């Protein structure tokens, strides 16, 4: 059981109702909710003092916060997350909103980008937030690739295709990568481009890795057979050759140095292969609240996003809405979900 599920299951019916009403009021008004206001809204008749005690308990759990003394309570980011994951109720999409989304895709334009631009405008108009539309990934010959480090856990890859079009993709880089290692990876891949697609590059990298591994195995085998070295597999499944002291006295130093060089080369190629393999994961509507979302945490925003798929059920892009943390999630989630379904259908039909 997750920590959030445990907190919810431990709540009494009363504390759950108090928490839900505080969050719903905050999402509607943006302001704190006091105990006297809640006494008039509760299903059961309880005193303001009782409600204050419940709110103090919820504050102790980190779900509510008090912006000013005696000013009522507002939900914290943890509280919003708990509400969205465990208590959020989404309604059916009204006919007028459904029609507005469908109309945005009725363009006769053959350019999918034009249609997705109209979809973005429709989403912004309906939700009064900023729309986010990630276009389908292309599998076309690439002219140039560049990796840009944005933060320790966020990076951007810039792909320049042979026809001159440019595509930017956000990804989480492998742990320990630096801006300089990303530049080295880009330089290595650019030397291999020659009109290859990303799939082609992955094939080339896997071939290089297999060749290096075979070369290492061949050089190391004599040392292992003579008892001068042994393979050791770490917890992360990384193989290491452990060389025993006598080997350096018996003239095999040249082979050992060659193996060490090959290992370094193998690790660099594995890192580059990881860059190529990073792809979007997940299914369904995802909601990122406040600091959970590294791109928008400085402005205290939330992102409601849903991937869309092609006919083969493969994720090829995403649509979403960016707004304040007090978004009307119950209304916006079904809008984003329905839009993603229609966009996936539209892209599949046009392809």
TrEMBL record:
One example GO MF annotation: DNA binding
Domain Heat-inducible transcription repressor HrcA C-terminal as annotated: residue spans: 114-333
Classification via InterPro entries: GAF-like_dom_sf, HrcA, HrcA_C, WH-like_DNA-bd_sf, WH_DNA-bd_sf, WHTH_transcript_rep_HrcA_IDD
Listed SUPFAM superfamilies: GAF domain-like, Winged helix' DNA-binding domain
GO biological process: negative regulation of DNA-templated transcription
Keywords, ordered alphabetically: Repressor, Stress response, Transcription, Transcription regulation
Domain of life: Bacteria
The keyword ATP-binding is assigned to this record: no
Similarity comment: family membership: Belongs to the HrcA family.
Function: Negative regulator of class I heat shock genes (grpE-dnaK-dnaJ and groELS operons). Prevents heat-shock induction of these operons.
HAMAP family: HrcA
Protein known as: Heat-inducible transcription repressor HrcA
Gene, per the UniProt record: hrcA
């Amino acid at each position: 059981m997750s920590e959030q599920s445990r907190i919810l299951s431990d709540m009494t019916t009363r504390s759950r109702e108090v928490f839900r009403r505080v969050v719903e009021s905050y999402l509607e008004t943006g302001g704190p909710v006091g105990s006297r206001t809640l006494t008039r809204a509760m299903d059961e008749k309880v005193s303001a003092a009782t409600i204050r005690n419940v709110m103090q308990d919820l504050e102790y759990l980190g779900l509510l916060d008090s912006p000013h003394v005696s000013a009522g309570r507002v939900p914290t980011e943890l509280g919003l997350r708990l509400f969205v994951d465990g208590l959020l109720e989404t309604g059916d999409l009204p006919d007028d909103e459904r029609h507005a989304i469908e109309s945005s895709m009725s363009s006769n334009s053959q350019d999918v980008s034009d249609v997705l631009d109209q979809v973005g405008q429709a989403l912004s108009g309906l939700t009064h937030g900023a729309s986010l539309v990630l276009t389908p990934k292309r599998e076309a010959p690439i002219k140039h690739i560049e990796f840009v480090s944005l933060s320790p856990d966020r990076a951007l890859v810039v792909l320049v295709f042979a026809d001159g079009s440019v595509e930017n993709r956000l990804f989480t880089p492998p742990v320990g990568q630096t801006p300089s290692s990303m530049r080295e990876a880009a330089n290595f891949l650019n030397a291999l481009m020659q009109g290859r697609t990303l799939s082609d590059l992955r094939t080339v990298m896997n071939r290089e890795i297999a060749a290096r591994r075979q070369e290492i195995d061949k050089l190391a085998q004599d040392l292992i057979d003579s008892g001068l070295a042994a393979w050791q597999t770490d917890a992360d499944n990384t193989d290491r050759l452990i060389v025993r002291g006598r080997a350096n006295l018996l003239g095999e130093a040249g082979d050992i140095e060659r193996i060490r060089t090959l290992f370094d080369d193998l690790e660099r190629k594995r890192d580059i292969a990881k860059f190529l393999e990073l792809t979007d994961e997940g299914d369904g509507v995802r909601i990122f609240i406040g600091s959970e979302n590294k791109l928008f945490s400085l402005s205290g925003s939330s992102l409601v996003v849903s991937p869309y798929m092609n006919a083969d059920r493969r994720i090829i892009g995403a649509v979403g809405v960016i707004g304040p943390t007090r978004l009307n999630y119950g209304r916006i989630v079904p809008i984003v979900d329905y839009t993603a379904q229609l966009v996936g259908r539209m892209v599949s039909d046009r392809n």
